[in-house]
Write a structure and sequence with these properties.
- With about 170 residues, this protein is of the alpha/beta class.
- The chain is built from 7 helices and 5 strands; from the N terminus they run βαβαβαβαβααα.
Length: about 170
Protein backbone atom coordinates (compact mmCIF):
# COMPACT_ATOMS: atom_id res chain seq x y z
CA UNK A 1 0.00 0.00 0.00
CA UNK A 2 1.19 3.49 -0.86
CA UNK A 3 1.45 5.06 2.60
CA UNK A 4 3.13 8.30 3.60
CA UNK A 5 3.94 10.13 6.83
CA UNK A 6 3.75 13.89 7.32
CA UNK A 7 5.25 14.65 10.72
CA UNK A 8 5.68 17.89 12.62
CA UNK A 9 4.85 19.58 15.88
CA UNK A 10 1.94 21.52 14.33
CA UNK A 11 1.96 23.93 17.27
CA UNK A 12 -0.29 25.43 16.10
CA UNK A 13 -1.57 23.81 12.90
CA UNK A 14 -1.47 26.48 10.18
CA UNK A 15 -3.27 26.91 6.88
CA UNK A 16 0.02 25.91 5.23
CA UNK A 17 0.24 22.66 7.21
CA UNK A 18 -3.34 21.78 6.35
CA UNK A 19 -2.77 22.47 2.65
CA UNK A 20 0.20 20.06 2.68
CA UNK A 21 -1.94 17.45 4.49
CA UNK A 22 -4.64 17.71 1.82
CA UNK A 23 -2.21 17.52 -1.08
CA UNK A 24 -0.18 14.67 0.45
CA UNK A 25 -3.40 12.73 1.03
CA UNK A 26 -4.25 13.12 -2.66
CA UNK A 27 -0.82 11.74 -3.60
CA UNK A 28 -1.01 8.64 -1.38
CA UNK A 29 -3.46 5.89 -0.57
CA UNK A 30 -2.95 6.43 3.15
CA UNK A 31 -1.46 9.40 4.95
CA UNK A 32 -0.48 9.36 8.60
CA UNK A 33 -0.04 12.78 10.18
CA UNK A 34 2.33 12.41 13.09
CA UNK A 35 1.92 15.17 15.66
CA UNK A 36 5.20 15.26 17.50
CA UNK A 37 5.54 16.42 21.06
CA UNK A 38 8.25 16.84 23.61
CA UNK A 39 6.90 16.39 27.17
CA UNK A 40 9.62 18.72 28.48
CA UNK A 41 8.56 21.58 26.17
CA UNK A 42 5.71 24.04 26.77
CA UNK A 43 3.32 24.03 23.81
CA UNK A 44 0.66 26.60 22.90
CA UNK A 45 -1.85 23.80 22.33
CA UNK A 46 -1.70 20.38 24.06
CA UNK A 47 -0.85 17.51 21.73
CA UNK A 48 -4.23 15.79 22.06
CA UNK A 49 -5.94 19.03 20.98
CA UNK A 50 -3.57 19.45 18.01
CA UNK A 51 -4.49 15.90 16.94
CA UNK A 52 -8.22 16.68 17.27
CA UNK A 53 -7.88 19.98 15.39
CA UNK A 54 -6.15 18.34 12.42
CA UNK A 55 -8.72 15.53 12.42
CA UNK A 56 -11.56 18.06 12.41
CA UNK A 57 -10.01 20.08 9.58
CA UNK A 58 -9.52 16.90 7.51
CA UNK A 59 -13.12 15.83 8.14
CA UNK A 60 -14.43 19.26 7.14
CA UNK A 61 -12.34 19.17 3.95
CA UNK A 62 -13.57 15.65 3.12
CA UNK A 63 -10.09 14.14 3.33
CA UNK A 64 -10.82 10.57 4.37
CA UNK A 65 -7.54 8.68 3.94
CA UNK A 66 -5.76 10.48 6.78
CA UNK A 67 -5.12 9.29 10.30
CA UNK A 68 -3.66 11.63 12.88
CA UNK A 69 -1.64 10.36 15.81
CA UNK A 70 0.59 11.87 18.49
CA UNK A 71 4.15 10.63 18.93
CA UNK A 72 7.37 11.49 20.69
CA UNK A 73 10.87 10.49 19.74
CA UNK A 74 12.39 9.98 16.32
CA UNK A 75 10.18 10.45 13.27
CA UNK A 76 11.75 7.45 11.51
CA UNK A 77 10.91 5.19 14.47
CA UNK A 78 7.31 6.37 14.28
CA UNK A 79 7.36 5.69 10.52
CA UNK A 80 8.75 2.18 11.06
CA UNK A 81 6.00 1.48 13.60
CA UNK A 82 3.47 2.20 10.84
CA UNK A 83 5.47 0.40 8.13
CA UNK A 84 5.87 3.67 6.20
CA UNK A 85 8.90 4.44 4.06
CA UNK A 86 7.74 7.68 2.42
CA UNK A 87 8.15 10.89 4.41
CA UNK A 88 6.38 14.08 3.30
CA UNK A 89 7.95 17.47 3.93
CA UNK A 90 6.58 20.88 3.05
CA UNK A 91 8.96 23.48 1.65
CA UNK A 92 8.26 27.20 1.90
CA UNK A 93 11.46 28.32 0.24
CA UNK A 94 15.15 27.79 -0.37
CA UNK A 95 16.09 27.87 3.33
CA UNK A 96 13.70 24.98 4.02
CA UNK A 97 15.20 23.00 1.14
CA UNK A 98 18.72 23.47 2.46
CA UNK A 99 17.72 22.26 5.92
CA UNK A 100 15.53 19.39 4.73
CA UNK A 101 17.90 18.06 2.06
CA UNK A 102 20.46 16.83 4.59
CA UNK A 103 17.78 15.01 6.57
CA UNK A 104 16.42 13.47 3.38
CA UNK A 105 19.89 12.19 2.46
CA UNK A 106 20.38 10.55 5.85
CA UNK A 107 16.87 9.11 5.83
CA UNK A 108 17.45 7.83 2.28
CA UNK A 109 20.48 5.85 3.42
CA UNK A 110 18.23 4.26 6.03
CA UNK A 111 15.45 3.12 3.71
CA UNK A 112 13.19 6.19 3.70
CA UNK A 113 12.23 8.24 0.68
CA UNK A 114 11.31 11.91 1.10
CA UNK A 115 8.68 13.68 -0.99
CA UNK A 116 8.87 17.47 -0.93
CA UNK A 117 5.73 19.51 -1.54
CA UNK A 118 6.18 23.19 -2.29
CA UNK A 119 3.98 25.53 -0.32
CA UNK A 120 1.38 27.34 -2.38
CA UNK A 121 2.26 31.01 -2.78
CA UNK A 122 -0.53 32.15 -0.44
CA UNK A 123 0.92 29.96 2.34
CA UNK A 124 4.67 30.25 1.67
CA UNK A 125 5.18 32.89 4.37
CA UNK A 126 3.30 30.97 7.09
CA UNK A 127 5.15 29.06 9.78
CA UNK A 128 4.27 28.10 13.34
CA UNK A 129 7.05 30.47 14.44
CA UNK A 130 5.40 33.34 12.57
CA UNK A 131 2.06 32.50 14.18
CA UNK A 132 3.69 32.57 17.62
CA UNK A 133 5.21 36.01 16.82
CA UNK A 134 1.82 37.30 15.66
CA UNK A 135 0.26 36.03 18.89
CA UNK A 136 2.87 37.79 21.02
CA UNK A 137 2.35 41.01 19.03
CA UNK A 138 -1.41 40.77 19.54
CA UNK A 139 -2.20 40.77 15.82
CA UNK A 140 -4.97 39.04 13.87
CA UNK A 141 -4.54 35.35 12.97
CA UNK A 142 -7.27 35.04 10.32
CA UNK A 143 -4.90 34.60 7.36
CA UNK A 144 -2.61 32.16 9.18
CA UNK A 145 -4.73 29.52 10.94
CA UNK A 146 -8.27 28.12 10.58
CA UNK A 147 -10.96 29.58 12.85
CA UNK A 148 -11.09 26.50 15.09
CA UNK A 149 -7.32 26.71 15.66
CA UNK A 150 -7.63 30.40 16.58
CA UNK A 151 -10.42 29.44 19.00
CA UNK A 152 -8.17 26.74 20.51
CA UNK A 153 -5.40 29.30 20.98
CA UNK A 154 -7.87 31.48 22.88
CA UNK A 155 -9.12 28.51 24.92
CA UNK A 156 -5.57 27.61 25.96
CA UNK A 157 -4.64 31.18 26.84
CA UNK A 158 -2.17 31.79 24.01
CA UNK A 159 -4.43 34.56 22.65
CA UNK A 160 -6.31 36.79 25.05
CA UNK A 161 -9.24 37.84 22.86
CA UNK A 162 -11.53 35.81 20.62
CA UNK A 163 -12.27 38.90 18.50
CA UNK A 164 -8.54 39.59 18.14
CA UNK A 165 -7.77 36.07 16.97
CA UNK A 166 -10.72 35.84 14.59
CA UNK A 167 -10.86 39.41 13.29
CA UNK A 168 -11.86 39.44 9.69
CA UNK A 169 -13.79 36.12 9.91
Amino acid sequence: MNAALYAGSFDPPTLGHLDIVTRAAQASERLVVGVGFNPAKKHFIPVEDRVALIQAECAEAGVENVTVEAFSGATVEFARKHDIHLLVRGLRGFADLERERGLAEINGHNGFETMFLLARSQHAHISSSLVREVIVAGLCLDQLVPARVAAALVRHGAVTSQSQALAGR
